[in-house]
Amino acid sequence: ALRTTVRQLTLRAQRAGRLVIGAVRARQGGAVATTTAIPVTVDSAVGRAAPLSPPARELVDAAPTPERDDQVALTVVVSGDSVLVGRQVDILLAAWFPRELRLRLRGRPRLALPTPPGVWSYPEEAPDESVGSRLVRGRWMDLYVAHRMVVALEPGQLTIPAASVGYDVPVSFSIFSREE
């Protein structure tokens, strides 16, 4: 009979640089198996690519870094400041979380990006995980996004309603603790 044991590790980089994960050795009875070392290079640019459409990814890349690194920050980024009637405008809500806070979250943050009046709108499904990370004044910030594609139906000024974010953090480290 063949027996397989799987050990899975999930690593999250704290800083840019090069890391070598050494060889792993498994022994069962008299048999020994050894893996090769795995080199990993961590870049300081925006983190891993989540499943976003190309227009949303461009807006993520254009999102400004938050001014403060110690609190949640919201930014709304728009693909253009003027558009012809019937053309698409992309709106992205970027929610920056300090990594220490993001690691304490019990669930995905709830991003609300209301639809502007006078448009046809199509919200893109938001990824469940953060779509990137940036190093802000020496501290890591993780990014969650909501993306909405809108088409102006009539000429005039388009006012984007206020966006918001909600999230829950446990009051204590117990799994049964209440949340704020």
Comma- or semicolon-separated keywords:
180 residues, mainly beta, five-stranded antiparallel sheet, two-stranded antiparallel ribbon, elongated
Protein model, in words:
- By secondary structure, the chain is mainly beta.
- 7% of the residues lie in helices and 37% in strands.
- It has two helices and eleven strands.
- It has helices spanning 54-62, 99-102, and strands spanning 17-21, 25-28, 31-34, 38-42, 73-78, 88-98, 110-112, 119-124, 132-136, 139-152, 164-166.
- A hairpin with a 2-residue loop joins strand 9 and strand 10 (139-152).
- It is elongated.
- It starts with 16 loop residues before the first strand and ends in a 14-residue tail after the last strand.
- The relative contact order is 0.20.
- The model has no long low-confidence stretch (mean pLDDT 83).
Residues in helix, %: under 10%
User: What distance separates the N and C termini?
Assistant: 51 Å
General form? elongated
Q: How many DSSP-defined strands? A: 11
Task: Give me a quick take on this structure.
The protein has 180 residues and is mainly beta. The protein has helices at 54-62, 99-102; strands at 17-21, 25-28, 31-34, 38-42, 73-78, 88-98, 110-112, 119-124, 132-136, 139-152, 164-166. It has two helices and eleven strands, in the order ββββαββαβββββ.
